[in-house]
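Q: What structure does this chain adopt?
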Amino acid sequence: MNLKLFIDQAICSALTQAGAAEAPAVIKNSQRPEFGHYQANGVMGAAKRLGLNPRVLAGTIIEALDFPAAAKVEIAGPGFINIHLSAEFIAASLTELRQYSQLGVQSRVAETIVIDYSAPNLAKEMHIGHLRSTSIGDAAARSLEFQGHHVIRANHVGDWGAQFGSLLAYMDQLDTSGVALGSELKDLERFYMAASRLFKSDPEFAHRAREYVVRLQSGNPRCRALWQLFITESVKHCQAVYDKLNISLTPADIKAESDYNADLPVVVDELTSQGLITVSNGAKCVFLDEFTGKDGNPLPAMVQKSDGGYPYMASDIAAVRYRSQTLKTDRALYFVDARQRLHLSQLFSVAKQAGYITDTQDFRHLPFGVILKEDGKPFKTRDGADVKLIEVIDEAIARAFELVSTKNPELDAEQRHEIARVVGVGAIKYAELSKNRLTDYVFDWDTMLSFEGNTAPYLQYAYTRIRSVFRRADIDPSTLSGDILIQEPLEMQLGLKLLQFSETVDAVTEDYQANILCNYLFELAGLFMSFYEACPILKAAPEVTTSRLLIADLTAQVIQQGLDLLGIDTVEQM
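A:
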């Protein structure tokens, strides 16, 4: 049950009864700590449109309000309506919540949703910059699936283009000299750098590299075989990162740039037949009125170069065409760097002009900021190279192992390594997801691995603390039965927060801001800690103990499910 929507519907019904159906109320949680308290603040706007005194209209609404869940409804201030939920309603709702595996999150009318995220360039190893698209996109995919949507993960990897010419020429050179390519490709970054240096320093090699691009695109068997060897090894590198980072992407989700190669001339022909193509300096471009440069001149969206080659815009249009016409997606979400804003705006506009995106389809760019070092500069190595993501993950796990070993040296090494994996990976993902996706943020090891504050280790520890209650009592939570009782203010607070899980998940998928869920889980864990300290669980009267165990178990379930939607694991003890 979405509690906010439930109350909103009751107020809207009362507004209709009061003759103000055209002005539905806006409901927001007033965050009063001592009781379940919601506030309708749309009354003033409705009163203004109706020419009524807001307090008079509020009184009329209260008279028409049929809402037995409320213990008290009152007018506050100039015309706000305060709704105090009853302890009985919250207790009954919590009992009902325990019966559903979705924890109150109701399945939506299922849509087909394509999510374009991660999309590394296979010429290199994944670096720290890929953390944002990969983590944010994966959390969105998990949340939308939890709501019942059909999610298609689209990993639009870069496996085509001019940069592969130097790589293939270098591979061929090594292979013909008897070098084992398999071992050379174990470090893709080093391999790429060696090929790039040779391209810059050796004109003959550079010429040969350009020829390899033509050979590759024309289907030369030797080039294709070398290219496939490189791509296969690159995909292994990426999947190792995904597996370690608990990302739900698999090789089956890859739909690479090269997959659209045969469609590119078709796309250009279709754009030409619709009169959208203008030849500019030999290149085929689409000019749209809404895109102009600083000088006021129109900006081209180039779909074919003067030499006959195809830029990224062409393959991206082909991808839109495929997602729209073949996958028949209702929504397509592109979690791509904010620096690609202009490119994606042009992409969607051209695709709409061509009829590839219909009026009922929503193609949306969801940008994000960058990761910075403490000095405010981009997160790179001392020599300016991108930091490998796999090395960041390994360091997070190593640092977590030291913390866990210091905190709980009595655990055996295998347990400590597993806890370190869960805590370390969770820490870097949560540090990412707990920030507004549009903002830049500073990568700080000490903060993200702290067991205090709004961090993954804090939430994971809160979960284990709840589970420790059941271990001490030697109780299997699945065997619990009985009624939930709400008697203390902190029980009211915690119960109300648990009932807000559904509306929180809904809020996350409105603009794909995972930090909303992070903040909710942090507040929930904090409320449980306060409840745990103030309300004895195992030393209370039997019926109270049962009730508080039920509340504790429900809290653990919500924390675990919420973290799972973020792609973060839990452990039973740490």
